[in-house]
Amino acid sequence: MTKYIVVSGGVVSGIGKGVIASSTGLLLKTTGLKVTAIKIDPYMNIDAGTMRPQEHGEVYVLNDGGEVDLDLGNYERYLDVTLSRDNNITTGKIYREVIEKERRGDYLGKTVQIVPHVTNAIQDWIERVSKVPVDDTNEEPDVCIVELGGTVGDIESAPFVEAMRQFQFRVGYDNFALIHVSLVPDMHGEQKTKPTQTTVHALRGLGLLPDLIACRVVVQKPLEPATKSKISMFCHVAPEQVVGVHDVSSVYHVPLLLQSQGIVQYLQKRLNLASVKITPEMQQHGLSLGNRWRELTSRQERLFDDVTITLVGKYTDMGDSYMSVVKSLEHSAFRCNRKLILKWVDASDLEPQAQITSPAKYHDAWKAVVSANGILVPGGFGIRGSEGMMLAIKWAREQKIPFFGICLGFQLAVVEWARHICGLTNAISGEFDSKAEHPVIVFMPEISKTHMGGTMRLGLRPTVFDPESESWSKVRKLYGGAPKIWERHRHRYEVNPAYIEQLAASGLSFVGKDERGERMQVLELEDHPYFVGVQAHPEFCTRPLNPSPPFLGFVAAASGEAVLKEQLEGQLRSFKPPHPESAMVDEAALRHGSPRPQGEEAIMDAEP
Ligand code: GLN
Asked: Where are the beta strands (DSSP E) in 347-481?
């Protein structure tokens, strides 16, 4: 029987519920258990694919092409698992399933209602997905973390809270525990418990009892013993059921912070985890994971040399918009024993007109670019800032500063090259000007022109390296010398086949292509410390203990020639791809943006 740990939130959202939930999962993994995770987002969108990053953070992409909430990234990274689109439940997905069933006549004669039809659909979904293997063992997980987005008491999350209330009886007491994450504000040095009392009261009123109350103290001061006693007293839980999570220097410390407060022992007892069979190999595996994690976090405190990376993007107001990019840089910096100093530049501030409209910003932006050890241009959509991005790319190319371009960053590196090396002065991406004279980047033929949700080229796709560049390509070495690799994609545009010959002849090497050799996926300059662009989004496959290869190369190059050399040799010796080749994209599911429950082919196929 799967053990379920529901993580709910109270008072306010955005206090790190996802980190607490994934840290809990990680801790259980260190005991040898197999852990999976489900994130519930109570919004009506089918998925996060159509949401603006500024509003909801980055759109995270899975192997199967699912465009999901960024918390799934936390789970994949912390738990080292591969999740599917079904691991992200939204109100949109549940309602669609129920409505489709109703149209098919599955509920014939009945009134279809939130309770029990919607709440049953939620519970069935969780039960089904919690059993899907997510790691190399290919076995059913022992524990499923279910993170309930939003805060308890919202109108939006009500059906999910009610579903969880019913679920505790469906699976039984020993198989269901609840962690409620609450806020403990610090008011002029005094920790206040009233918001926690109120939210726990609301939770109980809805029929859910907290097994653990995780108190977020959003200052760098631990939860005080007196606050803990008070919460225990007024929320009717034992003191050991109250844990504090104050701000720490790095989120990688959160698992250790929770561990030091005994949550593993508590959950072991509460969920009778001793009854779960753990093989000696898994136990060993867990132990080594725990040790490596501890080593990583303690080493992080002792890093003195730093590396400055300047990220030239569009949504620089929020780190969440580029969450996985930041994580990939962090993981790579750990590996290179460097402290990461990340600078954000809004690409439009680099453009000439900013000199007049906002000279101070223009000056600061250029200062960040010229003082960087490495320049990164991430993925994005739309023309705003693209000229500024290309100015940064040109600087990096000419000054031989390590550069890494991802998706849009890759495409713009091609445009910049076409303009300044091939002499196509008005080259541009077809995304910005569909009638351009030299659209060196064009709309891909297979992409829908009418539908936005789930219609890009999405998910895990292969890249085949060009044998001719094997001797010098740094990217190839970073992937351990493998001839074929897999990364996740999310794009509508590609390098225009009509210009490939001209681009390549002038020295822009496309070292990685799709399986047919028609689509350009990795570019690299031979005569440069590190100038790499990738059409994929390798940031979605990074792991704290196994950084994404092209990011690692980039950060290593930014840290110096010797570091890069050391990392290239290390990767050639020991790189293990994180993904099995078998994890293929399900094109049909992609087209519809969600899995198709069996037997509804006819209805689904009637859709445009
Ligand atoms: N806008 C570009 C495209 O659709 C790049 C996408 C991206 O960076 N994710 O191809």
From this structure: 374-377, 403-406, 427-429, 438-443, 457-465
Q: What is the C-alpha to C-alpha distance for residues 31 and 52, in angstroms, rounded to an integer?
A: 38
CB 539 within 8 A of CB 324: yes
CA-closest residue to ligand 1 atom 1 = 381
**Rounded CA gap, 258 and 267, in Å?**
12
How confident is the model over 44-57, as pLDDT tens digits? 998 888 887 777 78
DSSP class of 546: B
- For atom 9 of ligand 1, which residue has the closest CA? 379
Looking only at the bridges linking them, the beta strands covering 190-191 and 484-491 are unpaired
Distance 489 CA to ligand 1 centre (A): 9
For residue 567, report the distance from its CA to the centre of ligand 1, in Å.
29
**Are the beta carbons of 460 and 486 closer than 8 angstroms?**
yes
Provide the pLDDT for residue 361: 95
User: Which residue ranges have their beta carbon within 6 Å of ligand 1?
Assistant: 379-381, 407-408, 431, 490-493
Collect all residues with Cβ–Cβ distance below 8 Å to 94 and sequence separation of at least 6.
Answer: 118, 121, 122, 125, 159
- Residue 588 confidence (pLDDT): 53
Distance between Cα 181 and ligand 1 center (Å): 36
Could you give phi then psi for residue 290, rounded to 5 degrees?
-60, -45
Contact 339, 305 (CB under 8 A): yes
Q: Which two tokens stand for residue 229?
A: 């006693």
> What secondary structure letter does DSSP report for 115?
I
Complete domains list, the chain, with CATH: 3-93+122-292 (3.40.50.300), 305-445+490-561 (3.40.50.880)
Q: Which residues of the chain have pLDDT under 50?
A: 581-582, 591-608
Write out pLDDT tens, residues 48-103.
888 877 777 899 999 999 999 999 999 999 999 999 999 999 999 999 999 999 99
Which of the 8 DSSP states describes residue 544?
A: T
- pTM as predicted: 0.90
**Residue 5 and residue 145 in contact, taking contact as beta carbons nearer than 8 Å:** yes
Nearest in space to 519 (alpha carbons), one of 586, 450, 447: 447
Q: What is the pLDDT of residue 579?
A: 54
**Which residue has tokens 């995304």?**
431
- Tell me, what's the pLDDT at 601? 30
Which active-site residues does the annotation give? 407, 537, 539
The strand pairing partners of 242, in sequence order, are 213
Q: How many residues are listed for the chain in this entry?
A: 608
pLDDT given at position 470 = 92
pLDDT of residue 578: 60
Among candidate residues 64, 113, 71, 114, the one with its CA nearest the CA of residue 89: 71
First to last CA, the chain: 41
Contact 404, 558 (CB under 8 A): no
Dihedral angle computed from the Cα positions of residues 202, 216, 175 and 113, in that order, rounded to the nearest 10 degrees:
40
Cβ neighbours, 10 Å, residue 288: 11
CA distances from 267 to 41, 117, 213, 229, 270 (A): 25, 31, 13, 20, 5
DSSP 8-class letter at 358? -
Q: CA 143, CA 441: separation in Å to the nearest integer?
A: 45
**Looking at this protein, which amino acid is placed at residue 313?**
G
